[in-house]
Design a protein that fits this description.
The structure is a homodimer. The first copy, chain A, is α+β, with helices and mostly antiparallel strands. Chain A has 2 domains: about 5-240 and about 355-435, Aminopeptidase; about 240-355, 2-Layer Sandwich (Alpha-Beta Plaits). The first copy, chain A, is built from 12 helices and 20 strands. In chain A, about 55% of the residues are buried.
């Protein structure tokens, strides 16, 4: 199949179901991905740790995570990419560029999932990156800049906290040894699991060289694109976030024979704190969200007064000062509630991500591609936190959001139509391609 | 060692550390138990499933429960008792009486424990019963009525709900097949566990014949005896109890990107219900207690809005109508809170025990024994529920309470001094003996 030169000067190759347009280096470059192959790869990854109800259960560093990593590396090797695994398990595959001085453009996301999560989430971002490289290979297309694909370790932060861990260490925001020592609920150490599944690589956990840019496609995980009937989201930044945990410690005692006035029931301040956290939004910033995702008591028996009660918080706002104020307020309330019940209280912030503002040039590149493809788009601030927040500290960054039907996320009901997957994949792929074919500044 | 007749006509045997006084059948009969042997048996049972912090973890029908049952049966056989295991795993050992027409006097309690509970609880009641039979054997003492010792299956209701299960089926309050089908949190069926540990016996789960009376020794699990510096408690009845569970079902969604007004967060009504349940005491009866011992959410991840939240209740009051009103109120609040958040709500009462008033004659027998031994005593209503509540439906019943230091219960810090154990054991043993030696009414 020989490329034909069109009368606009582009090289056009028509394949069975793909149109590839490679234009001269000084003109915009666009590729249309292979929709069937994209869907096929999405279905393949979704089957690894797939649940009966169409969801995905692929916790970081589990056997399922190992299996999907093995599949991913196999795909990279099939593309003759230089595969690099760093000492925190982040997996990179590099496709060379023609300009030896041009720094690489990074594209990717993560393959791990929440417990019983959905199949799209960040997985779509990795699969779209893979499909970009396959499409470029199909056409023997060259780029001035190398293109590097990445799968970050433990984005979800569900089994091991905090999340965004691989990108956090890589970007220098997190300390490697501290993160190695994290344990899951069964006391299993992260480093041990990393070694067990064979993904503690040799490469240092840091940017090997300056990066030209990073692009990440992720599903929106919110309702705005769906409600506004847009095709793709052009993400301009990520809200600030605080995660933490409050543990109340009172006294276990018999539920029947302990008079009310002699109780030190850890569940009582926990419930009060939960209600307080729920009331934070609407009192601070206009776009504050606050969630208690995890609640538990011990000994957790119907007729024993709880000795301990744990409540987590997840607070986000576009303005970091609002997040600060929210954490101050909930901490005060935790202490006040503990005092009222006569129990102890321990407050720990387990993760903090400052709000991120993405690079104008990268955001405009995404916007231009969406416009060029004729996709309806809107600009969005991400409420969810992403590896892109960390990478943004290292190099220019932008994100593309795919439509999440009904905004559902982290549940088997999460859904993005294949058409929406394809549109978003084309957008991120071509933003990368545009950046990788641009001449050095 | 030969008994000597004293000048009051009693037979007195002096052993190394035991004084046994056997008096003629028409006079009150008193035995002093062997304190060292009682302590020794307490320590032996406490080691089976004992925890490092001095507590006891011996959940119903677990391997530890099997081990303690095996030990118990061995002790019964060593006493040449007729051992009977019924089809629900209740274990009986009968010592014959001299009067063929006299109905048996039952004494016992339970050997299972809460998760990380204490070593005294009901265990003391079984060990005291054992020590009574050993003491009677030492002296070849005879009683008109047979004396039967019992270990009830699953009193605690921690692993399998409801509690008081063995006595509940035996007394006809619970349905055998329904209770067989109960499952623990891992979905393991009760009947399967009963068979696995080899304690599904052949005897029908019912009183084989009329019983003369039932006496049960248990630790108080409350602070009243300790605070009032009494030696033993004479229990006149048990408060009414309701156990239940409310499950709220909303929608799992991403904690960052789901706007507050689109949430259906199951944890919010759960917290409101918990706070409401806490406020029930002080609004209904004078002695109402209400507890939420178990709280949980799914998927239980820091950045996912909970889809389900479960809250248990435990409400008790001496007056059954107050318990009824409490359940009505918390049910209304659960529904109202669910409506406010736009989530579903399922309310299930899992156990209900009407308040029990013990038999005057039995209570007076306990009081007389305490007085005779010179023990300081007080009359109490039990806030904790006991197998005695069920047995009270079948035959005359009373209970003895041992001092609980600080009222602590269902925790490794639970403590009753050996002196207090001994005093309470002597009290229940001699109440049984007095009843078993009395002539038929």
């Amino acid at each position: 199949m020989t490329p034909e030169r069109t009368d606009t000067g582009s090289l056009v190759t028509v394949m069975s179901d793909t149109v590839i347009i490679v234009v001269p280096v000084d003109a915009p470059v666009t590729v249309a991905l292979n929709r069937d192959r994209l869907v096929d790869a999405m279905e393949t990854q979704a089957a690894i740790g797939g649940t009966d109800d169409g969801g995905l259960h692929r916790l970081a560093l589990s056997d399922e995570d190992k299996a999907v990593r093995d599949w991913f590396v196999e795909q990279l090797r099939a593309l003759d990419l230089t595969v690099r695994v760093d000492a925190f398990g982040n997996v990179f595959g590099r496709r060379s560029g023609t300009d030896p001085d041009a720094s690489p453009v990074l594209i990717g996301s993560h393959l791990d999932s929440q417990p019983n999560g959905g199949i799209y989430d960040g997985q779509l971002g990795v699969v779209a990156a893979l499909e970009l490289l396959r499409t470029l290979d199909d056409e023997d297309a060259e780029t001035a800049h190398p293109i590097e694909i990445v799968n970050w370790t433990n984005e979800e932060g569900s089994r091991f906290q905090p999340g965004l861990q691989g990108s956090g260490v890589w970007s220098g925001e997190f300390d490697l040894e501290t993160e190695y020592d994290r344990t899951d609920r069964d006391g299993v150490r992260l480093l041990d699991e990393l070694e067990r599944i064979g993904y503690r690589g040799d490469a240092p956990v840091e940017p090997a060289e300056p990066y030209e840019a990073y692009f990440e496609l992720h599903i929106e995980q919110g309702p705005y694109l769906d409600e506004s009937e847009n095709d793709v989201g052009v993400v301009t930044g990520v809200v600030g976030l605080s995660w933490g945990e409050v543990t109340f410690t009172g006294e276990a005692n018999h539920a029947g024979s302990t008079p009310m006035h002699l109780r030190h029931d850890a569940s009582v301040p926990a419930a009060e704190l939960l209600a307080h956290i729920r009331r934070l939004p609407g009192r601070l910033g206009e776009r504050t969200v606050a969630t208690v995702g995890s609640v538990g008591v011990t000994p957790d028996s119907i007729n024993i007064i709880p000795e301990t009660a744990t409540v987590t918080w997840d607070v986000r706002d576009p303005t970091d000062e609002v997040v600060d104020r929210a954490v101050d307020r909930l901490s005060s309330e935790a202490e006040a509630a503990a005092n009222r019940e006569g129990v102890e209280c321990e407050i720990e912030e387990t993760a903090r991500t400052r709000s991120a503002e993405f690079d104008d040039r990268c955001v405009e590149t995404v916007q231009d591609v969406a416009d060029e493809f004729g996709y309806e788009s809107m600009r969005l601030l991400s409420g969810g936190n992403h590896d892109a927040s960390h990478v943004n500290e290292v190099c220019d960054t932008a994100m593309v959001f795919a439509v999440s039907e009904g905004g559902k996320s982290h549940t088997p009901e999460e859904f993005t139509s294949w058409d929406d997957c394809y549109r978003a994949a084309n957008t991120v792929a071509n933003a990368v391609l545009a950046t990788a074919t641009s001449t050095a500044d």
